[in-house]
Amino acid sequence: MNVAIVVGGNFGTAIANIIARNGYTTYLWMRDPEQVAQTIEAGENLRYLPGHPLEAGVKPTADLGEATKDARVVFVAVPSSGFASVCREMAPFITADDILISATKGIEPDGFRLMSQLLGDLTPSEHTGAISGPNLAEEIAEQQYAGTVIATHHQADATLVQEIMRNDTLRVYASADVYGVELGGALKNIYAIVCGLAAGLNVGQNTIGLLVTRALAEMSRFAVSMGGNPFTFLGLAGVGDLMVTCTSPLSRNHQLGNCIAKGMTLEEASESLGKLAEGVNTLRLVHGKSHELGVYMPLVDGLYEILFEERGVAEVIGTLMGSSEGADVEFVDPSRWQ
User: Fold this and answer.
1) CATH topology for 2-176?
2) One of 69, 105, 188, 275 is an active-site residue; which one?
3) What is the 3-state secondary structure (H, E, C) of the chain?
4) CATH assignment of 187-322?
């Protein structure tokens, strides 16, 4: 059975190695033919994952048709800004029975669609899903212990993905809540900016604990309003990914928040990082959608005011700390008063 990875960034390359190590021929698609040639010659992806030799079963290619036409499972790890266009490009090579799995954490502005929805809308596949969790590519590549979640609409699809991905250091859990798992992956980028900003202000660990738990409350509230399951956020795709991204200096979103805390504008911070962090676009979309749906998300509102309305950080913090407190746990509160 062939597997395809679209595209060959750091995470795509890391999972290509995992799958090839398990004995599957794995095509690694890269748009740039020069990068393909360099990767083949060096035996590793020097641009995105240097220091990690490719397994023998990994086949880099710049031909999207070659990569996907005979693949039973296709992982799509294209940045969200180019996800839809790549879906259209590969659609002629996809059949209804092919399993397409998004490995991208983002939201499409057109219709507020998640990546697995784009896979279903823009290709013939009737078997779409998403993979998410606390999965820093460098650690996965180094075979450090980790876990991930595969969310699909069909149990057999999840079982197959578990089979081709699991190994001695990677646990692969299954979920039927595709929308909730994807929302967790997208929303946590917003709160990584918040926590990066807080870290830049040298706050204490109590503050980080407060931010992460209230972020989890906001995420689950929003997911429920969109049809997701709040309990999904107690797992790897929710609290697991949130904790890693909110506390890791490797996160681009965390780094952006840190730059804002140092007094940079959003434009200056993005320029210093070389690329706009995914959480910025997600913040715009979620802020608008939460107001449309009437979902209470004070951290989203506060960060939006700082980044886009030039409101002072101290003023926003004062507003947040002055707001009324509701229930600690909203969906299952064991302390119900009689």
Assistant:
1) Rossmann fold (3.40.50)
2) 188
3) CEEEEECCCHHHHHHHHHHHHCCCEEEEECCCHHHHHHHHHHCECCCCCCCCECCCCEEEECCHHHHHCCEEEEEECCCHHHHHHHHHHHHHHCCCCCEEEECCCCEECCCCEEHHHHHHHHCCCCEEEEEECCCCHHHHHCCCCEEEEEEECCHHHHHHHHHHHCCCCEEEEEECCHHHHHHHHHHHHHHHHHHHHHHHCCCCHHHHHHHHHHHHHHHHHHHHHCCCCHHHHHCHHHHHHHHHHHHCCCCHHHHHHHHHHCCCCHHHHHHHHCCCCHHHHHHHHHHHHHHHHCCCCHHHHHHHHHHHCCCCHHHHHHHHHHCCCCCCCCCCCCCCCC
4) 1.10.1040.10
